[in-house]
């Protein structure tokens, strides 16, 4: 008896259902009489077995409401709603209330028929005789913190000296020694180094998201000095393109989007400021601990001048850009949903912890009780979020945003828009004053009517001002409609910011099962108990965001550095050391190279002072990074997944890289940063398909990171190649191969246009031979020269295609058509979409 | 590594690629491609249905107008007995009479109202569930519940789960097609793959323009004709094969070569599949020529070609949302669906497809027997009707009951989770084992709920 089934829980951390209640029930009960026992066995037990055991027994997957009734004790004791029966008093018994569907409704699927209910009532009246023995299982989960802290990810990274390796060629960097030692243990022999053309293409895409130019390739290939690789790597790290690439990785993780998504999808007209902040932060190599603090609490940090103040305020957009359920009816529900988004992004992005799982119940796997969730919720509840949208409102409003301290200098085009808006502002002001006047008049009208009525009973008449109430109401409606219309129109660009600031500090109650109506005890604001340090102590006068940030960004937080170096590793090797980059919890994956992960984390925090650029540099200068991606049967048999890095894993270009690389090859890429975002020009109202959206999606030649990210309307070239869904936290994108991508490459106007532009570029120099043109197309698209076989295939194709066009009396530029087709074929080739 | 019960979901792509050998012409390439990208587990049991067509009456029809006769409504018309004092979206008044007569139809004697004379001829094929219920009386949450098993967006839709579980039957066509002559409320969120691999997303098609190239993007090359494109593809094949020879075994590259070929064929396959002008005039007339009729005919053409899931939304917005003028609107709506659905069932049957195609009819919820705004009916999540036909269900039966006024399901209640579990079962999938690991936990279409309603199975 007392069949204890936790079944689903790893016992290591959560000692679920581990103890059997030992104390005897307070109320001494006599053993029921034979008749009473029979009544129970005949009438009551069958009801319980048939209708209740599924959810309320020791055998149930999970005892709902912590209530089991397959033992006498369990039934007597009750569950989280309290005692189930008052023997002798059916009217006071929760069980009876529940089966009668008064309050609780049990069984939830279908009410018992009246006969059965009567039997239960009678039984309780009899004193609820229950001949069963056995003890109730304690079903409450208890988190054992001391035990939980033994989990590897909650232990501080350990400094372990890089191991000695047998192969002297692999003595180079610490990274190489850790990786090689593991290879040697697995009896894997790494493949050779990649050739230089492959290498420069790989590192240029990895660091900047763009292909190397032919000149850059030549410079590297012809540089015979020992520092050739360092020169390339340092050039790329210093390039503004670095932040555009690595900033985009971060934007995936923090669910960056430029509209509210979900139900109403109202534009976030200033989200782009946060995007630029992130790109600039990676370019400026803002230390990662500082980067964390800025995003969580930039508004609370001191600043030297207005510009710095603004930059820090923009950083807190991190907390404001999540999706919002504008149509949510309850204001507090809206707040708690927003807080849930903030907790989710904070804990997954920085800590690799899924704290949001603890909103409704203690975390099933990790040592995170619901009280921790609400301790953190209190921090965000004590902060005000300014996203430019408000619950229940049809349009975005600048009033729901923060303002920059340093006014911007708008371009002439934008200035014109501001002037145009001033007229609208005047109209709005006029309408508002008219409405106010109308209201006053109506009030007066109401008084008049009352007076009129009163006058009937009096001899002395008070004069009555005639007011046509209906006319006033009609006018009012007309004005209100016009006001809605004006407010829904695009506002001019202004100095507004999405972000947060401290509100009035206060704690949050635990919401049982996440229900607003079921408030539990209040919990003090704070951080995760299992990793708590004094830094996480929240004072009574602040929201606690700064403390939260300091606690996360501290060297003694065992997760923070590990989580970030793991992300960086993933972007350079395709698979992370801990493949579940957002989940370092019990359900996450184990590290493939635990000592290496720790060594990288320690180096990142200590030697490199949280510099992401130095971290990236230390990885790409390793020999491991420079391995070829070639196949090897022997290694493959041992480690087909390449978990131990016997070669470099080839990687498909991501959506942004595919688009940018086509623009780079065709010579059309515009490396300037656009002013703001086209989303700023959208009307304030819900985003609808149509002209506004078409304008936003108007083709441009800017880098893909600057394309507007309207939720549920991501640019098609990005969507086709698995760009991150801006409504989700995405730390690893899918890589799919679907026919739509092929159709896109075959027929999409963007691809056709870039192919033609590339053809023009190749044909520009009239003195070139066809062979030289073929070489140029290969160099621009694939970074390498074609071999003889490829050259002859293309030559033959050009000839035949030209003949068929001539035979068909082609009216256009046949030469351009032929070369465009070749260029498109190269864009459509498998090789173009991969780095090796 | 993964510890999913159902399948090695977290099996990494490169790991999979690693274990598979074989050359370019490998037979299982299409399947391999899917497995590599996280799909195509295949059925667990012998499936009773290979594919699903869902006829979605968006807005929510009223159960007692069609398949759940409630004479008590008329008897107590205008009154508001205690039994109907239930909370729905808005406040409602007294009972509003149902002006349609019901007849027993077919051998089974299943009762169908006079609103659907043609569909009545198929009564013996219909498996009517009168005791459906859902969690929320608002369109958005109820649409999500019907589509993804929760009342919130951002979860994978039912069709995405089908594709994830079973893969596609026809690599030349999208496996999950959504037809609507407009935009149903909540739009793309209803057929999102969410965190499932992107290939499992529904392909939305507005078929109000029946030109196939208008329905599917990038289907046509504006510059190259078919022979020119064929020739270009031949060059591409050579370039890719040279590269493959250079690199040695590379499954992903083979997959990409294959996908170009597939796409090339899809240009023609889709043009054919989506072109209902290729149907004989007699068939066009059998279905009728409304948007809904065209969608039903398209659904049959897609089912025939192995599209796993075709979802037809009746119309733009929520046409069945009859808060006012309910009876008049319902007559029009019923007249508009009667002939096309009858034609679809008859057509599927004649072609031997009905046995392996599950047809699902219903809205996101039902409506109230009581009035709203004097002549309308409000949303009702407490009790409503859906029916299934074909693929493995018992025809000519009505399952479950609502109360005497048809307001609330009372016996043999079927939650949307149960419906999902049952549909997955019919497709040969176990709703408790079809899981996907995301953000640290295993997700299911049915979350932690759902029971297969065995009584519905043939």
Please sum up the structure shown.
The complex is a heterodimer of chains A (836) and B (458). Chain A is mainly α.
What does this structure look like?
The complex is a heterodimer of chains A (836) and B (458). With 836 residues, chain A is mainly α. The model of chain A is unreliable at 1-29, 136-140 and 462-466 (pLDDT under 50). Chain A has helices at 34-51, 72-77, 94-99, 114-125, 145-148, 174-185, 196-208, 214-221, 228-238, 240-253, 271-283, 288-297, 306-315, 331-351, 370-381, 412-456, 469-488, 545-552, 560-573, 594-605, 612-620, 633-638, 655-666, 691-696, 716-720, 739-747, 749-763, 770-782, 788-807, 814-828, and strands at residues 383-386, 402-403, 496-497, 499-502, 508-511, 519-523, 651-652, 834-835. Chain A starts with 33 loop residues before the first helix and ends with a strand. In chain A, the strands form 4 sheets. Chain A has a two-stranded antiparallel sheet. Chain A has 30 helices and 8 strands. The radius of gyration of chain A is 34 Å and the shape is globular. In chain A, a hairpin with a 7-residue loop joins strand 5 and strand 6. With 458 residues, chain B is α/β, with parallel strands linked by helices. In chain B, 33% of the residues lie in helices and 16% in strands. In chain B, the strands form 5 sheets. In chain B, strands 1, 4, 5, 6, 7, 8, 11, 12 and 15 form a 9-stranded mixed sheet that branches. In chain B, strands 2-3 form a two-stranded antiparallel ribbon. In chain B, strand 13 and strand 14 form a beta hairpin. The relative contact order of chain B is 0.22. At the A-B interface, helix 26, helix 29 and helix 30 of A face helix 1, helix 9 and helix 10 of B.
Report mean pLDDT of chain B, rounded to a whole number: 87
Helical element count of chain A?
Answer: 30
Q: What does the overall shape of chain A look like?
A: globular
Low-pLDDT regions of chain B = 1-40
What is the typical, i.e. mean, pLDDT of chain A?
87
Helix fraction of chain A by DSSP (H/I, runs of at least 4): 40-55%
Tally of individual helices of chain B: 14
Largest interface: A-B, 78 and 73 residues
User: How helical, in percent, are the residues of chain B?
Assistant: 25-40%
Q: How are strands sequenced across the largest beta sheet of chain A?
A: 1-4
Q: Oligomerization state of this entry? A: heterodimer
**Terminal residue distance of chain B:** 39 Å
| Largest sheet, strands/sense/barrel of chain B | 9 strands, mixed
């Amino acid at each position: 008896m007392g069949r204890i089934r936790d079944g689903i829980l790893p016992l290591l951390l959560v000692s679920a259902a581990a103890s059997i209640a030992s104390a005897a029930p307070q109320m001494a009960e006599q053993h029921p009489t034979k008749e009473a026992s029979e009544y129970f066995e005949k009438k009551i037990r069958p009801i319980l077995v048939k209708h209740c055991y599924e959810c309320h027994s020791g055998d149930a997957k999970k005892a709902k409401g912590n209530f089991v009734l397959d033992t006498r004790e369990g039934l007597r004791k009750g569950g989280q709603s309290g005692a189930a029966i008052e023997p002798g008093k059916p009217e006071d018994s929760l069980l009876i209330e529940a089966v009668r569907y008064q309050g609780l409704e049990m069984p939830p699927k279908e009410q018992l028929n009246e006969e059965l209910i009567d039997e239960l009532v009678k039984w309780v009246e009899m004193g609820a005789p229950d001949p069963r023995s056995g003890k109730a299982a304690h079903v409450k989960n208890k988190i054992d913190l001391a035990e939980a802290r033994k989990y590897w990810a909650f232990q501080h990274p350990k400094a372990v000296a890089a191991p000695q390796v047998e192969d002297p060629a692999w003595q180079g960097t610490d990274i190489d020694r850790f990786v090689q030692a593991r290879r040697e243990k697995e009896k894997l022999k790494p493949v050779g180094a990649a050739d230089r053309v492959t290498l420069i293409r790989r590192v240029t895409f990895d660091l900047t998201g763009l292909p190397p130019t032919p000149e850059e390739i030549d410079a590297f290939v012809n540089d015979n000095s020992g520092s050739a690789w360092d020169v390339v790597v340092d050039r790329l790290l210093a390039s503004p393109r670095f932040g555009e690439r690595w900033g985009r990785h971060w934007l995936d993780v923090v669910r960056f989007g430029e509209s509210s998504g979900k139900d109403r999808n109202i534009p976030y007209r200033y989200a782009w400021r946060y995007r630029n902040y992130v790109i600039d932060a990676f370019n400026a190599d803002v230390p990662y601990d500082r980067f964390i603090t800025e995003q969580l609490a930039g508004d609370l940090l001191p600043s030297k001048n207005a510009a710095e103040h603004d930059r820090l305020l923009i950083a807190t957009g991190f907390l404001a850009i999540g999706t919002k359920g504008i149509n949510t009816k309850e204001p507090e529900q809206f707040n708690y949903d927003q807080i849930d988004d903030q907790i989710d992004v904070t804990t997954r992005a920085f800590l690799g912890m899924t704290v949001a799982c603890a909103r409704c119940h203690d975390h099933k796997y990790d040592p995170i009780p619901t009280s921790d969730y609400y301790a953190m919720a209190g921090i965000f509840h004590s902060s005000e979020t300014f996203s430019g949208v408000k619950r229940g409102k049809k349009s975005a409003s600048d009033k729901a945003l923060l303002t920059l301290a340093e006014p911007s200098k708008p371009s002439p085009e934008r200035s014109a828009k501001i002037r145009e808006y001033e007229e609208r502002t005047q109209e709005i002001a006029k309408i508002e004053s008219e409405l106010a006047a109308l209201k006053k008049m109506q009030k007066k009208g109401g008084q008049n009517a009352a007076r009129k009525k009163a006058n009937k009973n009096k001899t002395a008449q008070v004069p009555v001002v005639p007011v046509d109430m209906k006319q006033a109401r009609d006018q009012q409606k007309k004005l209100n409609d016009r006001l809605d219309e004006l407010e829904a129109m695009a506002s001019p660009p202004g100095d507004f910011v999405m972000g947060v600031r401290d509100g009035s500090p206060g704690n949050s109650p635990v919401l049982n099962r996440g229900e607003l109506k079921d408030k539990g005890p209040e919990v003090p604001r704070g951080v995760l108990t299992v990793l708590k340090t004094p830094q996480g102590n929240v004072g009574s006068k602040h929201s606690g965001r700064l403390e939260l940030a300091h606690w996360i960004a501290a060297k003694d937080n065992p997760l923070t550095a590990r989580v970030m170096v793991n992300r960086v590793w993933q972007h350079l090797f395709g698979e992370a050391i801990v493949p579940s980059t957002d989940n370092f919890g019990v359900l996450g994956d184990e590290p493939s190279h635990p000592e290496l992960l720790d060594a990288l984390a320690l180096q990142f925090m200590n030697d490199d002072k949280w510099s992401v650029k130095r971290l990236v540099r230390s990885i790409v200068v390793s020999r491991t990074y420079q391995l070829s991606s070639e196949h090897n049967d022997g290694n493959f048999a041992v480690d087909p997944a390449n978990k131990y890095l016997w070669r470099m894993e080839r990687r498909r270009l991501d959506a942004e890289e595919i688009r940018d690389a086509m623009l780079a090859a065709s010579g059309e890429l515009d490396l300037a940063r656009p002013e703001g975002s086209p989303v700023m020009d959208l009307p304030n109202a819900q985003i609808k398909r149509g002209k506004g959206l078409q304008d936003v999606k108007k083709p441009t030649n800017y880098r893909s990171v600057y394309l507007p990210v309207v939720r549920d309307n991501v640019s098609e070239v990005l969507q086709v190649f698995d760009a991150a869904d801006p409504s989700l936290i995405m730390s690893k994108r899918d890589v799919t191969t679907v026919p739509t991508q092929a159709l896109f490459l075959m027929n999409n106007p963007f691809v056709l246009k870039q192919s033609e532009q590339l053809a023009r570029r190749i044909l520009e120099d009239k003195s070139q031979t066809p062979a030289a043109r073929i070489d140029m197309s290969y160099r621009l698209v694939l970074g390498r020269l074609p071999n003889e076989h490829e050259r002859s295939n293309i030559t033959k194709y050009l000839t035949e295609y030209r003949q068929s066009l001539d035979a068909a009396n082609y009216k256009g530029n046949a030469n351009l058509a032929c070369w465009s087709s070749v260029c498109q074929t190269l864009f459509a080739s498998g090789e173009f979409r991969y780095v090796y | 590594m993964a510890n999913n019960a159902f399948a090695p979901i977290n099996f990494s792509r490169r790991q999979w690629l690693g274990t598979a050998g074989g050359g370019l012409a490998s037979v299982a390439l299409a399947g391999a491609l899917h497995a590599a990208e996280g799909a195509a587990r295949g059925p667990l049991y012998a499936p009773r249905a290979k594919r699903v067509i869902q006829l979605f009456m968006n807005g929510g029809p009223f159960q007692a107008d069609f398949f759940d006769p409630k004479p008590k409504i008329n008897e107590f018309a205008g009154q508001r007995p205690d039994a109907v004092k239930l909370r729905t979206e808005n406040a409602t008044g007294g009972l509003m009479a149902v002006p349609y007569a019901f007849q027993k139809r077919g051998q089974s004697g299943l009762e169908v109202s006079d609103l659907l004379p043609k569909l009545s001829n198929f009564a013996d094929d219909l498996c009517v569930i009168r005791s459906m219920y859902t969690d929320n009386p608002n369109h958005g949450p109820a649409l999500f519940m019907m589509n993804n098993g929760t009342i919130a967006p951002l979860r994978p839709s039912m069709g995405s789960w089908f594709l994830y579980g079973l893969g596609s039957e026809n690599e030349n066509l999208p496996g999950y097609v959504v037809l609507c002559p407009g935009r149903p409320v909540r739009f793309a969120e209803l057929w999102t793959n969410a965190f499932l691999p992107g290939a499992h997303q529904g392909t939305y098609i507005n078929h109000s323009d029946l030109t196939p190239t208008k329905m599917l993007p990038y289907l046509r090359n504006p510059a190259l004709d078919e022979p020119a494109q064929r020739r270009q593809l031949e060059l591409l094949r050579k370039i890719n094969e040279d590269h493959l020879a250079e690199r040695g075994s590379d499954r992903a590259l083979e997959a990409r070569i294959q996908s170009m070929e597939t796409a090339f064929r899809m240009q023609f396959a889709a043009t054919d599949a989506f072109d209902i002008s290729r149907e004989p005039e007699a068939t066009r007339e059998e279905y009728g020529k409304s948007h809904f009729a065209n969608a039903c005919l398209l659904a049959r053409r897609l089912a025939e070609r192995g599209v796993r899931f075709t979802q037809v939304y009746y119309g733009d917005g929520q046409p069945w949302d009859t808060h006012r003028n309910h009876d008049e609107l319902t007559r029009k709506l019923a007249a508009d669906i009667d002939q096309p659905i009858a034609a679809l069932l008859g057509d599927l049957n004649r072609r031997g497809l009905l046995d392996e195609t599950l047809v699902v009819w219903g809205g996101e919820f039902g409506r109230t027997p009581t009035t709203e705004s004097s002549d309308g009916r409000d949303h009702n999540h407490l009790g409503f009707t859906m029916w299934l036909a074909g693929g493995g269900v018992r025809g000519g039966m009505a399952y479950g009951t609502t109360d005497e006024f048809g307001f609330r399901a009372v016996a043999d209640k079927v939650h949307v989770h149960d419906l999902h579990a049952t549909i997955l079962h019919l497709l040969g999938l176990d709703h408790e084992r079809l899981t996907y690991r995301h953000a640290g936990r295993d997700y299911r279409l049915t979350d932690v709920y759902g029971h297969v309603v065995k009584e519905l199975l043939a």
